[in-house]
Structures are given as C-alpha cells and as structure tokens.
Amino acid sequence: MPIECHANEKYVTGHCLGSSRGRGWTNVLAERWSHARGELPSVLPRDTELAVLLSDATLVDREGAGLKQRTHGRRGTAWLCPAGIREEYIDFKQPLRDCLHIFLPAQPFAHAVEQDFGVDPARVALRYDVIARDPFIEQVAVQIARELDRQTAAGALLIEGLGQALSAYLVNHCAETAVRLKPPLCERPLDERRKQRVLAFIEAHVAQPFTVAELAAVACMSPAHFARSFKQTFGVAPHAYVSAQRLDLARKLLSGRAHDLAAVATAAGFSNASNFARAFKQATGYTPAEYRELGLEGVQ
C-alpha cells in the first residue's frame, strides 16, 4: 500500500520546498517545508510521521493521544506522530523555516521487524512523542534532505536502507512498551553462488529501478541481513555499488551518439537530466555534454 502523505491537508500555514514524490522511493516519503506561525487543522494520519527541524529555534504547542506538549525546538528536534493518532491541536508559535517531514508505513517495515529482530509487529506501538536532539535521527534526516535536494544514481536504494534503519530505531527507542530487539548477527560475506546471482541481477537491471528487497530476494535473504552481507562482500553498501555501476553505464552511453542526454540520465537512474548532470560532474569533474564532446571514454 502506498504511503498517503497528509502534508498538504495539515500544513496550511506553510509551503513545500521539495518532495520525494516521483522519485521511486520505497516505504519512505519525505517533504521539506517552511512553516509560518499559526494553528493547524486536526488530522488523523494513516502513516507515521517524523518531523525533524533543520533550521533555527522555534516554539510549538501540540496535543495528541491525551498529551499536551510545548516544545522549544532547535535544530535536530523531532516530533513523532504515529499512524492513527489524531493531533487535536497544533500551534506554531514561531516559524519553522526548514523542517523535514518523513512519512513511514503505519506498521514500520513489519516484515523486517519480525524477521530481523524477532518482534511481533502487532504488539509494537510507537509513542506520540517529542525527541530532543538525537544524533542518529539527525544524521538520517540530513542524508534524506541531501538526497531530496541532490538526487544520486542509486538514491532510492540509499533511502530504502535509511528508512529501514530509522524504523528499527524508532521501534527500539520510541515504543509504548519496551521492545527487546535481537542483536544483529555478525554477518558473513555472501557465498559465491549468491554473489554471482546478485551481480547478474544488477548487470541485467542496472538501467532499471529496483529495490534492496529485490536484491535480497535474489540472494534468498532478508533485506537487513542481505545489506550487511553485501557490505562484507564488496566493502560498500548496495546503493554505493549500484551508483558506481550506473555512472559507469552513463560513461559508456556518452561515448557514443546513439542516446541523447535525457535517455542517458534515465538509464543512469535519474528522474531528470539536470540532476544527472549535477551528479555526473561531481563524480567526473565534467558535465555530460563536456564528457561527450571531449571524447573522455575511460575517464573515471
């Protein structure tokens, strides 16, 4: 079931600075907003929302789940509203000039919670809570905001992993009742058969969108276990490996004249040519057009 973002219905005093809609992200939707002062309407969310302040100080009053909260927010402050919890009252006493809103499934990655952490997702309920500056949450928010602003070749795979890690973190730290997660296993590298199957899948689908969950299925592993074993095998996370493969494909396509720049951008996993050009120049030092005109095949 797709994530149903309620931001436009809820944040009537603000304007959206950027959205991940259309990016192909899996189980995460993110929007960056700037909010003026004022009261917001009551909303019953279907999905879990985590709002992380990226700008300077603010003051927020809100009420939900029978709790009244006044927060003197600063950069890194996060407001958690679980799915199904109606916020009866929200008042932005001061503006929030830059706030990242992360929407997660109502049951955060239920399959992964059960398979990877040994927890029955039916008994996991998150708190309606304010989270003071948390280094992990802030780091995840900054990475999501960076990908939102500057798309990368395998950004959807990066976000998929960040969303899974964030959901597990919230289950571990913000559950209504204490949840004891199984410690992560010390993963071994992929065996040769799994390794070859995964490499063949990536090679065959490098110009198409796919998920970490699909890669994990090829290896007959859960996504979390697969991601750790993949890094043990290749020294980098799946998104970094796929990003390098897609940029290499872009170099090969640019060496000829059969594909225009928009087609190359799509093959390299980008939603538009401008995002592709920015990422390609960051990786090579040349724009795609310069790379093609100068005949720089083989330049890394």
From TrEMBL:
<dbReference type="InterPro" id="IPR009057">
    <property type="entry name" value="Homeodomain-like_sf"/>
</dbReference>
<keyword id="KW-0805">Transcription regulation</keyword>
<feature type="domain" description="HTH araC/xylS-type">
    <location>
        <begin position="196"/>
        <end position="294"/>
    </location>
</feature>
<dbReference type="InterPro" id="IPR018060">
    <property type="entry name" value="HTH_AraC"/>
</dbReference>
<keyword id="KW-0804">Transcription</keyword>
<keyword id="KW-0238">DNA-binding</keyword>
<dbReference type="InterPro" id="IPR018062">
    <property type="entry name" value="HTH_AraC-typ_CS"/>
</dbReference>
<dbReference type="InterPro" id="IPR050204">
    <property type="entry name" value="AraC_XylS_family_regulators"/>
</dbReference>
<dbReference type="InterPro" id="IPR020449">
    <property type="entry name" value="Tscrpt_reg_AraC-type_HTH"/>
</dbReference>
<dbReference type="GO" id="GO:0043565">
    <property type="term" value="F:sequence-specific DNA binding"/>
</dbReference>
<protein>
    <submittedName>
        <fullName>AraC family transcriptional regulator</fullName>
    </submittedName>
</protein>
<dbReference type="GO" id="GO:0003700">
    <property type="term" value="F:DNA-binding transcription factor activity"/>
</dbReference>
<dbReference type="Pfam" id="PF12833">
    <property type="entry name" value="HTH_18"/>
</dbReference>
